[in-house]
Amino acid sequence: MPRTAVSTLASPVPRAADSDRRRTSASAVLRSVLEHGPVARSTVARLTGLSPASVTEHCARLAELGLLRESAAPRRSNGVGRPHVPVDLDDTRFLVAGVHVAVPYTTVALLDLRGRVLARRELKHGRTDPGRVLARAAEGLAGLFAAVPGRRPLGVGVALGGWVDRETGTVVEHELLGWREVPVRELLGARTGLPVHVDGHARALVNAERLFGRARGSGSVLHLFVGNVVDAAFATHDEVHHGPRSAAGTIAHLPVPGGTEPCPCGRTGCLQAELSERTLCRRARAAGVTDSADPMRVVAAAADGDPVARRLLTDRARATGRAAGPLLDVLNPETVVVTEVGVIHFEDCLDALREAVGAGRSATVLPTSFPESVLALAGGSVALDVLFRDPLGASPEAI
Ligand SMILES: [Zn+2]
Predict the structure, then answer these.
(1) Could you tell me if 383 and 377 are in contact, meaning their C-beta atoms sit under 8 angstroms apart?
(2) pLDDT (tens digit per residue) in 201-241
(3) N or C: which end of the chain has fewer CB within 10 A?
(4) Residue 103 CA to ligand 1 centre (angstroms)
(5) How far is the CA of 157 from the centre of ligand 1 (A)?
(6) Cα of 137 to ligand 1 centre, how many Å?
(7) Are 133 and 241 found together in one domain?
(8) Is residue 303 predicted with pLDDT exceeding 80?
């Protein structure tokens, strides 16, 4: 029969498609349990559109892998019949490690499967050559593993600014660190013996917001990170846009109207030069607010009532909003999440940002959901995104 002949010839294709479908369904089940757990399997079936039998099968497999467990308190419907035992994420067995490399220091951290920080440490850079920075990160993680015994690490996520190619695990270019074509996955994998996943930190943070933060369930999210590095990431539903070699989100050299800061690229008024924490601190020093290069000193001065510090921060928030405007016009996101020190700490900075983003744009503008742990969370989110996307492939048996 021609039909049989066709299906025999084509058999490898449906098999691959089946496996993809299985992975996608397992991911949908685990995501649903993360968001709604403890939750009845029947509810997961309704939420995911999968059949109850398929949900039961996936739950059994995910429980076998130690990612999911039956919740402690069974609920009976009307006190009779079979108890409906809800399922929940098992957040007690595993952890992921995270490394975030910023310009002045590296943050290493351990996270549970809900993205909660179990342990963290900051390692100040002496020199920023990649071999040394990554060796110290591996040592830092080894120290944290020893401090949190009894949980098995699933992998290491690394997040940093600049241009990061997720596919190859390479930092293509990070101007401020002076890194070029650094094979981070290879270098850190060799030192830790764990699977390593690498991504740009704006994308890492958009994933953290999608999985664990206030952007959960949003149709589209733009994340703006304004630190020393200034970058952006955009996700529609569960897809974060990368583009070829993950070059999307490079906004460092967008021109800011009226900007006066010279940029290393040779122009004046580039976004990163205008908004970086270095520039903020330099302006704060010039105005006599602080003698430090630490932006938190400006925040502390503003909190103590220093009007000049407050104005520097609101001006920066306003400039961030003005710079974000054209991006919003192009991308039209439902939600905009901003990680910036002033906006995190002061309502009037958030107001200035929202005002500058402007009426007529319908996006909801929010500060980061993780004000205390944004850098500790960034690296681990890269690994957690991999896990929740493909729990069958990223789970311990696959390691
Ligand atoms: Zn520039």
Answers:
(1) no
(2) 889 999 999 999 998 888 899 999 899 888 888 888 878 87
(3) N
(4) 17
(5) 29
(6) 30
(7) no
(8) yes
Domain CATH for 81: 1.10.10.10
219 and 357 in a single domain? The answer is yes
User: How confident is the model over 171-203, as pLDDT tens digits?
Assistant: 999 988 999 999 999 999 999 999 999 999 889
Residue 8 included in any domain? no
CA of 250 to the centre of ligand 1 (A): 11
Alpha helices in the chain (DSSP H): 2-9, 12-36, 41-48, 52-64, 130-147, 184-192, 201-212, 271-275, 277-286, 295-303, 307-331, 341-345, 347-357, 374-389, 391-394
Please give the tally of structural domains in the chain: 3
Q: What is the pLDDT of residues 143-154, one digit of tens each?
A: 999 999 999 999
pTM score, whole prediction: 0.86
Domain, as residue range, for 22: 17-89
Sign of CA dihedral 329, 201, 377, 58: positive
- Domain-terminating residue out of 65, 89, 113: 89
Question: Cα of 202 to ligand 1 centre, how many Å?
Answer: 19
pLDDT band at 3 (very low <50, low <70, confident <90, very high): very low
**Distance from the alpha carbon of residue 257 to the mean position of ligand 1, in angstroms:** 13
What separation in Å is there between the alpha carbon of 266 and the centre of ligand 1? 6
- CA–CA dist 172, 166 (Å, integer): 10
CATH number at residue 237: 3.30.420.40
Phi and psi, residue 368, nearest 5°: -50, 145
**Quick one: 329 and 344 in the same domain?**
yes
Determine the average pLDDT of the residues in 258-280: 91
pLDDT exceeds cutoff 50 at 6: no
Ligand 1: centre distance to CA 265 (Å)? 4
Instruction: Mark whether 195 and 297 lie in a shared domain.
Output: no
Contact present, 232 and 249 (Cβ < 8 Å) = yes
Q: How far is the CA of 264 from the centre of ligand 1 (A)?
A: 6
- The pLDDT value given to residue 391: 94
Q: Is residue 35 part of a domain?
A: yes
Under DSSP, the state recorded for 254 is P
| Mean pLDDT value across residues 378-395 | 92
231 Cα to the center of ligand 1, angstroms? 13
Mean of pLDDT values over 264-275:
91
Ligand 1 geometric centre to CA of 230 (Å):
11
pLDDT of 396 above 50: yes
